[in-house]
Each structure stands twice: as structure tokens, then as C-alpha cells.
Amino acid sequence: MSEDGVGRAVVPIPALADPERLRSLAETRLGSAPDEAFDRFARLVGDLLDVPVALVSLVTADRQFFPGATGLPEPWAGRRETPLSHSFCQHVVDVEVPMVLPDARLYPRVRRNLAIEDLGVVAYAGMPLTDLDGRVLGSLCAIDSKPRAWTGEQLRTLADLAAACSSELRLRIAVEGAEQARRRAEEAHDRLAMLAGLSELLGGTLDMATAVDRLGQAMVPLLADWCLITLVDPAGRPRTVSGMHRDPALAADLDRFTGLLSTGLGPDSIIRSVLRTGRPVMRGTAALADVEQGTTRPELAPLADRLGFGSHLTVPITAAPDRVVGAVTLVNGPSRRAFDESDLRTALDIGHRAGQAVGNSRLYGEQRHVAEVLQHSMLPTLPVVPGVELAARYLPAADRVEVGGDWYDAFVQPDGELIAAIGDVAGHDIEAAATMGQLRNLVRGDAYGRDDRVDELMTHLDRAIQGLPVPTVASAVLARVRPAAPGLRLSWCNAGHPPPLLLPTEGPVQVLDGTRGPLLGLARPPRRTRRELTLAPGDTLLLHTDGLIERRDRPIDEGQAALVEQLADGVSLPLPVLCDRLVAAAHRREDDVALLALRAR
Questions:
Q1: Domain at 205-369: CATH architecture
Q2: How far is CA 262 from CA 180, 241, 246, in A?
Q3: I need a labelling partner for 583 at 20 to 30 A (CA). Which of 83, 126, 393, 515 fits?
Q4: Is CATH 3.30.450.40 what the domain over 14-175 is classified as, yes or no?
């Protein structure tokens, strides 16, 4: 029980809050704005019954509004609505039959209604306005400010007009229903299209963060106003929470929400329940209490309110065999329809498909870690050599397991000379890496302790590859570096590899083309040749693999020219900074990248 504006007890009418009635009322899409069709009904009532006030009154759970009205005094004429404290029509909804009052002041049911005092309602005749199922949405009413004996003819006329007015309401509801059906059909089509492409979308990457981002973009706004994606660690504990919102202006609030939620899930939270049991939870009508009872962070409830919290649905992300690896939470604001069984089925399908992607990403992550350890174990620690500064970098191909056939090496001979090498074995997998390891060891075993010229060392390497045999075709540059005061003397041999680049302290960058011999590993090893030059103090030599210059969308010569341009001021940079700049510029690499730089001191 509540009170009206002057402290009088008001008994609530249950019929006003009937969800089905309110749904029909909403489907008329009418409000307190004037509507010409219903204004016409009000004018007809006023003219035919000769009354000063006539209303098409529709009643919600807490107010009445007038899409059709004539004769209302101000301020009510401008507002076109009143609270229920000023409503006779609510009683028509309650009794579901016409209500005819010659003098309202004599009837206990309404004699204390504020419409008598504020609107001048004395005589009242109201006919029910109904939807197709007979639910009373309001009334078409005639009002006089003085007592009046309503005639049978007047009431028949009012009833006929109410029937016609009800037909107009039903038409509005039917049109809205047809529009809703069309929207639902389009939504179902879009959902099927989304589900059909979801596996491919998620399977297009093996990176977990990218997969989660794509999943959020696929679901919002098609399925929900915003979503949360929670992933668990191997022990089943919530590890990360990501989110997506249809309104970019709320991105900061969502980031704050997910950040707090990742560490603030309480033991009674719905997400923890779904992660623990693997059973979905749906709330067609949600309250902020769902957030408050599920978290240890008081800030989350007001954040959820700002983000929009009208209904929510949480389903498990399952990987075979029925292992829960996370949860998807869909949330709609109060202005969007509540989730239903169709949404639940769609969300469960998404959870299953997402589980496959998460499982693949985790397997990839494990393989990536193993490959990274393997690759780094094969890359040498650069030696410290008097008169020479060395720096090197290795990057795998983008979005691929960190292992491949590119390699570099540098080691010191017993006499103090430096051997430097770089090479590229065909392939981008563990087999290529294993072959690369064999080849690097062959280079070391072939060159260490020998003072042969580099072209002779390369010829020995050809024979070793054929004779052992090592099943590969590879490119390589092998260089010998000797002190030659005041600088270094360099000799090198190229077996089908991109040429070295010289960054002199004076003058432009030079591409040391020379003689680029055939690849290593050919059936009939060719005769190898060498070239020599002197590095003055400060000069830099750069050895690199083709991943640094090769792109699918341009010739390799253009890539070589772009690299030369990028190195224009490289001689002035510290060697590690120069290497970092080169690998940063190769962020869209389609091949592995290895580079080895040496500078004469």
C-alpha cells in the first residue's frame, strides 16, 4: 500500500502491472505525444456526447497518458499525462467493464481521487479499450464538470467509438508485431551468418588476445549491448576478463569494470558458478543486486548501471572433453529486449566454438614456448673481440611458432681472428630449425682452427652437405675478420644470400654485391669465390636474411632500396639501437629475420 500526494492510502491495482498487458501497451508505440488518429476519437466523443472533456486514456503501472485528448485544462493539456492519483480510467482497467458515474463525488471508489479537485471531473463515462486478447489497456472516456445523467444513446455511441478506437490500437499492435517479426527474422539470419563464420574467424589466428577480441566484436552489438569474456588458468581459477561495448564512449568504464572484475569475483558470483558447474545462467530481468552479491568490489555495481544492466546471460566456454576454460557473459541494457531461450541456444553454440579456439590457442602457446626455447638455444652468445663491436637480432615470421631456418653465428679462432656467418635454410618449422642447427655446427666444425680462405671453407661446406648428407638447400655468407690497424680486414664468400651492406663513416651506404654464388647443397657444388675490403674505424658491416627486405607486394629490389634508405644515418647510431630500428621496421614480416652487425673500433 502507498500514499497519494496528500498522504491518503492508495491500494495498488494488480491488473495495472500485468506484464502481458504492459507488453501490449508498449507495442502500440504510443505515449503522451499527440496522435492525430486518437485526437480525432476524442473530438468525436466531445461533439457527439456534448461534453467539455474527452480522452483516449492508456494506463501504465504508474501513470495514465493521453494520445488523444480535447478540453483538458492546463497544465494537463500540455503534459498529456497524469499520475494515477488523478486517474478514473485505472478502475476501468481493474473492473474490465464500462464505468459510468453521474456524479463521482458520490462513489466511494473515486470520491477522494484528485481528478475531481484538480481536473474538475464530476460526471464520468469510460469504455474499455482492449487488445486482441481482451486485455484492457485504458479507456475512451467522456467527462463533465457537473453532474450528468448519461443516456442510453450516449453510452451506445461511446461504446461504438471505443470499439473503433480499440481496432486502431490493435492495428498499431499488429504493425509493431509484424515489425518485430521482421526484425527477429533478420536477427536470426544475422546470427546464423555469424555462427557460420565464427569458427573461421576465430581459427584465423592462434593468438589468444586476438581471438578474444574477435569474439567480442562478433557478439556486440548483434547479440548484446556488451559482453564479458572470462578465461581461466590451468587450475580453473579466473585469470583474465575482457570486454566489448557497443558504445565506444563507455570504453573507459568497461575497461575499469573488467579490471576490477578480474580480481573481484566473489564466491557467489554467477561467473564463478558457471565456471564451476559448466551450467549456463540466464536472467531475463536483472537487478544490480546480481552484481553486488557476486563481487568484492563495491564500485562494480554503479559501473554496471552506467554500462546498462537490464538482463544478462552467462554460458561456459568448453574445450574437449567438456573442460570449462572460460565463460561468455552477454548483457543487455533496460531499453533492449530481455534474453530468451533462443539467445541461450546461440550463446551455448558460441561457447563451444570459442572453446575450440581457446584450446587451439593454448596448444599453440605451449608449442610456441617450446619452439622459442629451442630457437634461442641454437642462437649463439656473441663473443667479445678486441677492435670489433658485434650485435645481432632474430625475429620469427609474424603470427607463427617462433622457430625457423634463419641463423647467424660468430666465433673466435685460436689465433684471435673472427669468423662471422649468416644463413637461411628453406622452411619455417622445427625441421628447418633442426637442419639449421646441423648447418651451423658444420660451419663451426669446418672453419674452427683452420686458416683457409673463406671461399675454400665454403667449398668444404658444400662437400660436407653432400657427403654426410644433410637434406637441405640453403643460402649463407661466411666472413673472416682480421685486425688491420687502424681498422679491420674483411674477406667474405656469398652462397646465394642477400649481399652484405657497408655503412662507412664517410659516404653513402653500399650494397656489396660482388659475386653471389649458387646456393649451398646443390647436387654439383660449384667453385666458390671471395671478396675483400678494409673497414675503417667506425665503419659498420650488416649481414641479414631476406626476411628483412622481402614482401609479397613488392619486388625484392625495392625492399633492398628501402633498407639502404633506412640505413642512411645508421652509422651514427649505437649498434644495438640500429638493430632494434631495423627489426621494428619489419613488423609486417612474412619471413623470419636474422641480422648480424659488426663495427670496427
A1: 2-Layer Sandwich (3.30)
A2: 37, 5, 21
A3: 515
A4: yes
